[in-house]
Design a protein that fits this description.
Number of helices: 15
Strand content: 15-25%
Distance between the termini: 21 Å
Helix content: 25-40%
Largest sheet: 8 strands, mixed
Shape: globular
Number of strands: 13
Radius of gyration: 22 Å
Order of helices and strands: HEHHEHHEEHEEHHEHEHEHEHHEEHEH
Structural class: alpha/beta
Length: 415
């Protein structure tokens, strides 16, 4: 069942109930060969385990069997939007995440600063996880680029990531990425290709921008800012060319009046803005996220609460770091429980196993706690336990129906 498709046929009611939608990015993992345990199974998580005994559990499929999702589509799926119908490009998510607004003919694209070797191969897609402050300096340099009648808007997102909006007539987003999403001696950036005839002009604009950006990034000034290891030079990779998103808002879909989002990473604030949420936090500290939740909880019917760090550790292949992040989240989650929401959902958008160093298709542990939940026999919140939960294996697009139903917000269907 896809929540956004079913919602128009349902009647919703505002009964004052509150939902906290707690998403631990990249929570799912794969067993470490020497122990046979995932990061979540390794971590000491007494509070999550205690919650598991109070609620009902299962495993959710982010997109489709065998399909590893990008972050944007995985979160939209969790919020009930069919990812194959509502295909929001990563560039648009990045743009909205830093507070930009897109116009009808705009194209947005996410940009990574990256490290290349002397032969032009991609050796570090994240430029040593370039500091945000350095990113801002480099973006300032790139704002000198001028192309024909196209306005170019460049903003830092965070760390090594930036976003570019091309604004002008006749632009279309059907363009291929240059980011190979891999590194190595034989891995080179791909050329920008127009995927449809209408996008040939857009491809020429993108190619010109990339060339001029790379010329600027070869200067001594740019190299001094980036401080890459000897032998590496700085360049950019582009990913997720996108036009302005046009999604039905969650308020209209689900009858929710006050919807807020707390997220430390800009892209997730972008998703929140696109679907109609108030962005309530723009910092980067875990403790502060929980502080903000306690501050605003009583003002909102639905709060999307996002934690990024587990995903980053998984992508870096750092098993111990991901375990540490999960343990820190567990220490804090009691603060969420003490707010006494009518419904608490705890899940992730996708799996990011440290052994894989990237997003995978593996199902994600899911837990929902509330007055009207029928607890199952699961005693621990992890992959091995949740697969035995009452909810079984289900699609992420069904999660909103579980949340709203258990909050008493869906009227009886038909007489």
């Amino acid at each position: 069942m896809i929540s956004s498709e079913i919602a128009p046929h349902l009647q919703f009611k505002n009964n004052g109930s509150k939902i906290i939608f707690f998403v631990i990015d990249g929570i799912g993992g794969l067993p470490l060969p020497k122990t046979g345990l995932t990061e979540l199974e390794t971590a000491n998580t007494p509070n999550l385990d205690r919650l598991a005994t109070k609620g009902v559990t299962g495993m959710s499929i982010p997109i489709a069997p065998g399909v590893a999702p990008g972050s944007g589509v995985a979160h939209l799926s969790l919020l009930g939007y069919d990812p194959f119908t509502y295909d929001v490009g990563r560039g648009a998510i990045a743009a909205y995440g830093v507070g930009l607004e897109m116009e009808e003919d705009d194209i947005a694209v996410r940009v990574n600063f990256a490290g290349f070797n002397s032969a032009g191969a991609v050796v570090d897609r994240r430029a040593g996880r370039l500091a945000t402050e350095k990113n801002m300096e480099l973006c300032k340099m790139l704002r000198e680029i001028k192309i024909h009648d196209v306005e170019i808007i460049i903003e830092t997102v965070m760390d090594y990531r930036s976003v570019v909006i091309f604004r002008g007539e006749g632009l279309h987003p059907d363009l291929s990425d240059t980011d190979p999403q891999a590194t190595g001696e034989g891995v080179f950036p791909a050329p920008v290709v127009a995927l449809k005839p209408r996008s040939k002009y857009s491809a020429s604009i993108a190619k010109t921008f990339i060339k001029e950006a790379n010329d600027i990034l070869q200067t001594k000034e740019a190299k001094a800012i980036a401080e890459l290891p000897n032998g590496q030079h700085l360049s950019i990779l582009t990913r997720g060319y996108a036009d302005r998103p046009n999604l039905p808002l969650m308020q209209h879909l689900y009858g929710l009046e006050n919807i807020g989002a707390i997220a430390s990473y800009p892209d997730y604030r972008g998703i929140a803005r696109i679907v109609g949420m108030d962005v309530l936090y723009d910092g980067h500290e875990l403790d502060e996220e929980f502080d903000k939740l306690e501050e605003v909880f009583h003002n909102y019917d639905f709060i999307f609460f996002h934690i990024k760090e587990a995903d980053s550790a998984g992508e870096d292949g750092n098993f111990d770091k991901k375990v540490s992040v999960l343990e820190e989240i567990d220490k804090q989650i009691k603060r969420v429980e003490e707010l006494s929401p009518e419904v608490l959902v705890v899940t992730g958008d996708h799996s990011t196993p440290s052994t894989y160093k990237g997003h995978t298709w593996h199902p994600v542990p899911f837990l929902i706690v509330g007055k009207w939940c029928r607890p199952d026999t699961v005693k621990k919140y992890n992959e091995s336990e949740c697969k035995h939960g009452t909810l079984g294996l289900f699609h992420a697009t069904e999660v909103m129906l579980y949340a709203l139903g258990n909050a008493g917000r869906i009227d009886k269907f038909r007489a």
